[in-house]
Amino acid sequence: MNRKLALPLLLWAFLMGACTGTQEALPPKALAVATENGVTFVQTVVEDGAFQSYAPLDHTLDLPGSVEILDIDAYGARDRTLVVLYEVSETQGAVRRLAFFPIGRVAVSQPAVTYTAASTLNLEDLASNTARTANCARRVSVDPSGRYVGLRTSDELEGCEEKEPLHLWLDRESDGPTFNLLWDSSGNPIVASAPAWLDLGDNEPSVTWAERTDVYAEGVGEDGPGEQDVALDAGSWSGSAVDYHAAGRVGVATDGTRLVRVDWATGASAAPIDRTDLGIDAIARVRVEPNLPGSVVVVQSPFRGYLTDLEDASRGLPALASSAAFTIDTLDYLHALNGTRLEAWDLINPLNPQQVTNRTLTVTGTPVGVAWFFTETEIAP
Question: What pTM does this model have?
Fold first, then answer.
């Protein structure tokens, strides 16, 4: 339950607790914290009704030895699945795989758990031809149902040099399975930021992306993304879009100097906001989080990260490192991995965040991603 909506209930519970000698505690969460060298699990520790600290869990993923984690994502409203994109070296060279781990609700009461992948896709087997291959995937995003997977390839991976970055989408329920490229209206493959999934109604997601000066959407039906059914002018850019992200019915694009918010429910885009209005030197990445108000987004520059309200050009959270991996859970806590330090920020007031706790983890390597999960003791909404 969102704490903003739950405050009257929490006040009632607190008063009742004062009468009975008990106090309503915040539900615990578990986190999967990924660096390039592996995935670590932790749980939040709640004492006296308040989030106090993190506690490591001796939970692991059943992965091959000597893998490099490239990216992670998670889906599911209650029992969630962790999706891991990783690289492993074989005799023929580097191979990228996509593994789906049905974590469900993390059993924090069990001292040691090893999660086994329900399915693993060898992306080398999904290649369409030698020039455009899924084996060059570097980023992954999954729609809320888990059926559709978006990939973005990279020319910085081994064996992928001189291959332009491309969008791919994958239907896990199709025979094969098969993947397809995203194409523009001229019949050329899209070269842009990673695909993002959002809900445009009718219980079917759409895949959206930013390209050059425009933001596009394609409805996803039984046959996956079809003809482009929405195309919005994203405003005046200094150049091509460098990043785009979406959640719910909101998308935000950036060209590195400006931010544009697109409301897919109304089919309209707001006036661009310049980085100088936010006091930001440059914009490298943007994230739309479904557990934040629609106008508040996370902006990462090459130097640090910010929470930004695009309606009044205000900002907060100047302490988030530019290289941090993070997630925002259903109680509006931001969990960020800055190097080896895991930090928790209370975002009930998103532009005046308060750091709750931090803990140094025994992890090595560059932060890749953080994903939240319910625990076995929590009542999910």
Answer: 0.84
